[in-house]
């Protein structure tokens, strides 16, 4: 009986009220986006970030803003932190479950730009050959790079 009543109420709420209810009733997530960005020589862009453990390297990325496509998040973060422009090609993986966080990783290519580090966040940015990644690369980032290298290369632009 209660289920029937709830179903009728749900059907009466059609559209926007249903979305508001769902938004209020469910946990909110932070969405992080990272990228394995290749230059024309096949090297991978890595950053040393001020807020990471000292001397570690990792993939570029950041957190999505409200109403922002994840591919646009990666492009924006790279532009803000390095001054570089990139093309985002394909999704490598999505993981979830860590402290209300969802993380999406993409594969992309370097298009150009002048290196201008956002010194509030980034200490250094460099391209590394896949067989010469720094030992201090975060293990989670190493796994994402491995997945990216096992997928077919992006189409030529």
Order of helices and strands: HHEEEHEEEH
The biggest beta sheet is recorded as: 4 strands, mixed
Q: How large is the share of residues in beta strands?
A: 25-35%
Count the helices. How many?
4
Strand order, biggest sheet?
3-1-5-4
N-to-C terminal Cα separation, in Å? 59 Å
Q: How many distinct beta strands?
A: 6
Helix proportion: 25-40%
| Average pLDDT rating | 88
Q: Report low-confidence residues grouped into runs of 5 or more.
A: none
Report Rg.
20 Å
| Class by SSE composition | alpha+beta
Shape: elongated
List keywords for this structure.
4-stranded mixed beta sheet; elongated; 6 strands; NUDIX_hydrolase_CS; single chain; hydrolase activity; alpha+beta; 157 residues; hydrolase; two-stranded antiparallel ribbon; 4 helices; 29% helix; Nudix_hydrolase
Give a short synopsis of this structure:
Pfam families: NUDIX. By secondary structure, this protein is of the alpha+beta class.
């Amino acid at each position: 009986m209660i289920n029937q009543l709830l179903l009728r109420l749900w059907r009466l709420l059609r559209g926007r009220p249903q979305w508001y209810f769902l938004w209020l009733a469910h946990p909110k997530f932070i969405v992080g986006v990272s990228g394995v960005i290749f230059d024309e020589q096949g090297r991978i862009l890595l950053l040393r970030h001020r807020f990471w453990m000292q001397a570690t390297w990792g993939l570029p990325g950041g957190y999505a803003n409200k109403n922002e496509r994840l591919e646009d998040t990666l492009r924006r973060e790279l532009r803000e932190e390095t001054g570089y422009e990139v093309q985002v090609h394909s999704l490598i993986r999505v993981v979830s479950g860590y402290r209300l966080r969802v993380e999406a990783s993409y594969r992309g290519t370097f298009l150009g730009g002048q290196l201008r580090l956002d010194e509030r966040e980034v200490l250094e940015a460099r391209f590394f050959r896949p067989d010469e990644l720094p030992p201090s690369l975060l293990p989670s980032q190493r796994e994402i790079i491995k997945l990216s290298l096992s997928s077919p290369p992006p189409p030529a632009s």
